[in-house]
Amino acid sequence: MNVAFVGVGAMGLPMARLVGRHHPLTVFDLDADRVAQLVAEGAQAAASAAAAAQGADAVIVMVATSAQLEEALFSDDGVHAGLAAGTTVILMSSVGIDAAVEAGRRLNTLGAHVVDAPVTGGVVRAVTGELIALVGAEPDALGPALPLLRLMTAKVAHCGDRVGDGQAVKLVNQLLCSVHLAAAAEGLQFAQRLGLDPAKVLAAIESGAAASFMLSDRGPRMLAAEHTQVLSAIDIFVKDSALVLTAARGVGAVTPLTEQASKIFSLASREGLGRSDDSSVIRVFEKD
Fold first, then answer.
1. Active site residue: 155, 170, 239, 263, which one?
2. For 63-97, how does the pLDDT look when each residue is reduced to its tens digit (9 = 90+)?
3. Pairwise CA distance, residues 280 & 271, whole Å
4. Which alpha helices (H) appear in 21-164, and where do they start and end?
């Protein structure tokens, strides 16, 4: 299967690497250094998203925002310009329900088979292929995409037959992640204020009733003296919590904890931490 991969950022690069071990791979990204890493491993570089899509049996798109998705798919040299009817397009970005539904509609008019498949698990699990794909797609569209999804993930959860159903489940996921992340930062800061060794506190509680992936994964980074490697930026949670709140207001859901977490991430971003690792949110709590 000839595969095009558009967007090889922090998540996309390891995902593309897993695909490229099994299929001919063409990649496009604005970051030439990331593309070069994959080319060194046997991938082909494309000059544009349209060029990447030409001749591809499947196009995987992994960008950060709805604006980037629009650019990658529908700009003058976007995927649409190189797309052949019958191609499978797998949208793996977390962009919210409306953006995915609209992109799917426009791609369908071009004859593409569209799979809405945002993922959860972060960079750590992207590297190991242990992500979970949250999929919204008709079974006929999902079938050809499954082999590729299984290369990048440990679980493919079919959340519904509509493009947008995967995004909807991802919003529930991000609601919980945002609250868990903020709670982990607040809890470890509380341990510090109590005069405890927060590393010992983390080791004591992370496998008990207070356990969460965010506590175990982000906790050690929150306590590290230096925050150099950015695995997931705070601004991602600014974006995702805003998507959650927009959707929640649209359906009348009550989300006070998410609203508070969103304010915390936005404050961290305003204080210059937006592009820092999201574990840096603990700095907001550490201020006197």
1. 170
2. 999 999 999 999 999 999 999 999 999 999 999 99
3. 11
4. 32-39, 49-53, 66-74, 97-109, 122-128, 139-152
The amino acid occupying position 71 is E
Residues in the chain: 288
Find the distance separating the first CA and the last CA of the chain, reported in whole Å.
56
- Determine which helix (DSSP H) or strand (DSSP E) holds 234, and give its type and residue range: helix 234-251
CA angle centred on 214, ends 209 and 215, rounded to 5°: 50
**Position 46, amino acid:** A
170 is catalytic: yes
Give kind and range of the element (H or E) at residue 135: strand 131-136
The pTM of the full predicted model, rounded to 2 decimals, is 0.92
pLDDT in tens, 265-285: 999 999 999 999 999 999 999
CA distance 131 to 152: 7
